Amino acid sequence: MWPTTRSVYLHNNRLRNTGLPPNTFHGSEAITTLSLSSNQLRYLPPSLPASLERLHLQNNLISKVPRGALSLQTQLRELYLQHNQLTDSGLDATTFSKLSSLEYLDLSHNQLATVPEGLPGNLTILHLGRNCIRHVEAIRLHKAKGLRYLLLQHNKLEASALPAGTLRPLRALHTLHLYGNRLERVPPALPRHLQALVMPHNRVAALGARDLVSARALTELNLAYNRLASAHVHPGAFRRLRALRSLDLAGNQLSRLPEGLPASLRSLRLQRNQLRTLEPEQLAGLNKLRELNLAHNRLRVGDIEPGAWHELQALQVLDLSHNELSFVPPDLPEALEELYLQANRISHVGPEAFLSTPHLRALSLRANRLHMTSIAAEAFRGLAHLRVVDTAENLEQVLIQLPRKGKEP
After folding, report:
1. What are the tens digits of pLDDT across the range 151-196?
2. What superkingdom heads the lineage (predicted)?
3. What's the chain look like in SS3?
4. Which domain holds residue 287?
């Protein structure tokens, strides 16, 4: 039908299976991209071209992949089946097993209760988010040893859903997405080369000394919006993660910073906890940290011990908004470029408030208790890089004069 056509786009129509008879693609051996997305198909069309490399079937009504429907597509590299009505009974052990070139498989937003069988060994990305998966069987993953990205967010995974050893065969796994499940602990025996573990919005209430020991290559760890309390985070929980660059613990129940944070950290997010103190020992060794978010806690200036910022030599962004600060904390890091202090209790900014931060570019003092004369005229002297100061929503309009661009202090 299309002897030389390489790409066919039939998406956003009203196609049904009756509108695609078995001979529709006869003589179409050159087609590499076929888009049938956003139609009304209920099962995979028969006799798809064997030359396909990309097949788009998302946003249909597909509940079944007939046996053998994909048996000839050995060159298929990308298969999009998200936003359909697939259940476990609509797939079988041979559905994907012949797809020896398949690298990307998207089955998200369906009704699957288990990981499909027969996953091909060349698979790199498997997207299973927004299904009904309650358990992950190791045998379903053992052939997909090249898998680098496994996305299981927003399923129904609980504590027993990922028993020890389930993910161990995935030696190439780079990123594991588990957010929005019901997990009460970090999965045991994580793959050794895993670099990103993303599992916010679960029910993790504790971190033991060895919970993360097998994932020493982690560069990103996101445990935001779980149930972690300081008393149940072991002092050595993070100590061996010597490659960790980003740690997100926002939205937990921490009353103090975790101990043993790795010196490799670049970003540390602790907003929306119950922090009441900052001690030099808690931030010791974090001389590569560039971003620190402490917003929405219960910090007062007196809770920040002298020298707390001393080792944060690389810190460029500091968010202390929505705390209980009555004035600008002293001796802030010299490299600081952005400082967020909105929604505190600051009523006065003295002439020496920013002496330690000559590189400051942006400052937010919004929604504090400032009056028209609350900020000393000399407060911004020497801040040659300062370009933005937000003083809106205070008790009175606050007028300030920024340093002139290029003018020496």
Report:
1. 999 999 998 899 888 998 899 999 999 999 999 999 998 999 999 9
2. Eukaryota
3. CCCCCCEEECCCCCCCHHHCCCCCCCCCCCCCEEECCCCCCCECCCCCCCCCCEEECCCCCCCECCCCCCCCCCCCCEEECCCCCCCHHHCCCCCCCCCCCCCEEECCCCCCCCCCCCCCCCCCEEECCCCCCCCCCHHHCCCCCCCCEEECCCCCCCHHHCCCCCCCCCCCCCEEECCCCCCCCCCCCCCCCCCEEECCCCCCCCECCCCCCCCCCCCEEECCCCCCEHHHECCCCCCCCCCCCEEECCCCECCCCCCCCCCCCCEEECCCCCCCCECHHHHCCCCCCCEEECCCCCCCHHHECCCCCCCCCCCCEEECCCCCCCCCCCCCCCCCCEEECCCCCCCCECCCCCCCCCCCCEEECCCCCCCCCCECCCCCCCCCCCCEEECCCCCCCCCCCCCCCCCCC
4. 275-409
User: pLDDT-based confidence at 1, cuts 50/70/90?
Assistant: low
Residue matched to tokens 């997909």: 144
Instruction: Report yes or no on 264 lying in a domain.
Output: no
Number of domains in the chain: 1
In-domain check, residue 78 = no
Q: Residues, the chain, total? A: 409
Q: What is the pLDDT of residue 191?
A: 92
Whole-prediction pTM: 0.94
> Looking at residue 409, what is its pLDDT?
43
Neighbours of 293 (CB within 10 A): 21
Contacts for 391 with CB less than 8 Å, ≥ 6 apart: 365, 366, 370, 375, 397, 398, 400
Is 142 part of a structural domain of the chain? Answer: no
